[in-house]
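A reminder from the course coordinator: this example appears on the midterm review sheet, so study it carefully.

Given structure:
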């Protein structure tokens, strides 16, 4: 009992500090779900073009992950976090000239810089959570971080919509088409400039966060508890490689669920489409809370991961065959909440959040298991690179949605994502050398 008490006391402060960082991760990341339909209007984009928001943001994780891991080796984890936040400040400030010029390319550059800063933060912070306590309960600690991350994902779209989507009746396609070119351009620039104050406030908040982390009592993580392994080549650890592949497909599925729901809802006539990302995030929070209760008491991390994959497959099929006009499921299950209702098919997209909640928390400890201390940072960088799935899959979804399949049937792209996750949960995480489990 004394050892448990010591663990609890020693972990409270770092968990609190890392928790604040995860909240900020979520706030910045899940703004994209509302930003996509906003920029589609302001910059006059089609589906394919609009999803370059996710490409610019998430491709930074692939491009910058290994360079950031080497920065961590030079700066240490704590100072690396501070540098990551500083990069994010630059990205937030780039939104100001982008908004004032309504330059979509500059918006994409700002998103790439924000993603680069987050890459350094994520590479540094996730090993803290995995190694701060017993490995068998790592998914629970990551779930706590997930509640904060996705809780911010509930708040961010609601706040963004409240400030940015007021008076949107002036920006319908019909009304804009009736204006002259000069009048339409002037109104769209006015709409775009609404982004200046929010991102200026975000930059200020990030500066305060950097100072907080710099002068906090956060210590460097200790990796002594990680099992050692003979190979110094991270690609000789199949559980890590399979984990990275599973994360690639998972993040693709997660970003599709959160960032396409707004445009999908708008396309079938949902009036509060700018808030729909919050619905997905709310289901993710509920999934994290369930995980905190059942792991590892009743479910192992691997079994929770398998159950999540099966749920994702079920929701994918329900979306494809649902009637987009019916809202009976919402009326039956959630009308008592007073939250604006949504059609069944949009609800199924939001419920991906519940299926996705435990995937990230379960994959990380299973993939890092067996790595020597000096490989944890590089192994984390490989896993972080897999966040590039969030860049690729929404673009593929956009191509399918603009093509013959249409936006609803395009969610079939989720099926292979969950099949890969199911493989890792059932078999892939067990391998310790190529060709053997």
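Designed residues:
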């Amino acid at each position: 009992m004394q050892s448990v008490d010591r663990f609890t006391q020693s972990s409270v402060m770092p968990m609190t500090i890392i928790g604040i960082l995860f909240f900020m991760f979520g706030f910045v990341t899940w703004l994209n779900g509302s930003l996509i339909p906003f920029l589609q209007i302001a910059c006059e984009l089609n589906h394919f073009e609009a999803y370059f928001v996710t490409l610019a943001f998430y491709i930074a994780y692939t491009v910058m992950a290994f360079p950031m891991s080497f920065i961590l080796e030079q700066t240490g984890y704590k100072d690396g976090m501070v540098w990551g936040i500083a990069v994010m400040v630059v990205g937030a400030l780039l939104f100001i000239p982008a908004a004032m010029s309504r330059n979509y390319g500059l918006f994409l550059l700002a998103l790439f810089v924000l993603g680069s800063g987050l890459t350094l933060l994520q590479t540094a912070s996730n090993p803290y959570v995995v190694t701060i306590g017993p490995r068998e309960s790592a998914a629970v600690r990551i779930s706590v971080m997930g509640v904060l991350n996705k809780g911010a994902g509930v708040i961010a779209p609601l706040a963004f919509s409240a400030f940015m989507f007021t008076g949107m009746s002036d920006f319908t396609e019909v009304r804009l088409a009736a204006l002259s070119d000069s009048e339409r351009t002037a109104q769209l620039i006015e709409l775009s400039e609404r982004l200046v104050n929010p991102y200026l406030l975000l930059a200020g908040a990030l500066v305060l966060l950097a100072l907080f982390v710099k002068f906090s009592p956060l210590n460097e993580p200790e990796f002594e508890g990680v099992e050692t392994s003979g190979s110094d080549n991270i690609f000789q650890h199949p559980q890590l490689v399979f984990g990275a592949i599973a994360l690639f497909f998972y993040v693709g599925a997660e970003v599709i669920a959160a960032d396409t729901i707004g445009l999908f809802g708008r396309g079938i006539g949902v009036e509060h489409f700018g808030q729909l990302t919050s619905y997905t995030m709310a289901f993710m929070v509920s999934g994290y809370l369930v995980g905190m209760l059942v792991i590892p008491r009743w479910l192992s991390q691997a079994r929770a991961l398998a159950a999540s994959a099966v749920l994702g497959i079920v929701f994918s099929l329900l979306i494809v065959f649902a009637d987009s006009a019916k809202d009976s499921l919402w009326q039956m299950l959630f009308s008592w909440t007073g939250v604006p209702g949504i059609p069944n098919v949009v609800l199924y997209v939001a419920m991906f959040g519940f299926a996705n909640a435990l995937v990230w928390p379960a994959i990380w400890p299973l993939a890092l298991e067996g790595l020597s201390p000096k490989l944890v940072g590089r192994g984390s960088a490989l896993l972080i690179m897999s966040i590039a799935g969030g860049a690729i899959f929404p673009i593929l979804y956009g191509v399918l949605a603009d093509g013959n399949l249409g936006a609803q049937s395009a969610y079939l792209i989720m099926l292979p994502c969950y099949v890969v996750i199911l493989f890792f949960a059932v078999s892939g995480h067990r391998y310790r050398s190529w060709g053997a489990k």
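The domain at 2-216+232-430 is CATH 1.20.1250.20 (Growth Hormone; Chain: A;). Confidence is low (pLDDT under 50) at residues 1-9, 225-229.
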